[in-house]
Amino acid sequence: MSWLPCKDLDLAQTLDCGQAFRWQPAGQGSPAWEGAAFGQALCLAPEEGGLRLNCTQEQAQELWRRYFDLDEDYGRIRQELEEISPVLAQAAAYAPGIRILRQDPWEALCTFILSQNNHILRIKSLVSRFCTLFGDPVPGSAWRAFPPPERIARLDEEDLAPLRAGYRAPYVLAAARQVAEGRLNLEAIAREPVEYGREELRRLPGVGPKVAECALLYGFHKTECFPMDVWMKRAMARLLPGVRPEDFGPRAGIAQQYLFHYSRMHPELFR
Predict the structure, then answer these.
(1) Confidence tier at 57 by pLDDT (50, 70, 90)
(2) Whole-structure pTM over 0.90, yes or no?
């Protein structure tokens, strides 16, 4: 077991807000959550002033501290965003424990390709099936690792049929093949300015602006990205008419996450 100090982190708000799909409550009514990332399984729970994790202290410091973005001051970020709009202040206050996870770039890209025209529960089921079918077992757990692009690149649409991903299957294959062959350089996307990543990702079949923005925000931590789908366009028009994503500045993606979660949890605002 290990422990990490942290504040401004609510596990349910962060792990169930639509940015990642491989986490679940550890038990009925339990504050603990379990999941997998970067080939490692984890169970963790809030503890006074921090988190208790079922891993070594070295793993906690080297992997999970960064994954949960614990070195970023989200209290300060919320204060900056709250000055932009009272509505944004209300959305941030509703879920102040949201943090933007630093996910594996390939996993983020692949899962958001699979996420198209799906709701969160179905996306979770689809991603779980994807890992069960093609991922390696994670030692010491019932979890499977997220399948690497090199493995998926060797498959064809018939191999993906049990996944029941529909029209998304060829898009996943195309992305995997471009990454595996080096035609899509994920390290370069991480290193270069955000416009480079937008251009590169949108070259992929089936990757439009929304999927590209999600991949860049959640997989490359490009926090200026602001994913906009039909739901978010409606939320912006209703809650913040006349405000543009770029008005939120370099933390636009964090603002988007507060607004998305707030809107999803308050459907009565849009009736």
Answers:
(1) very high
(2) yes
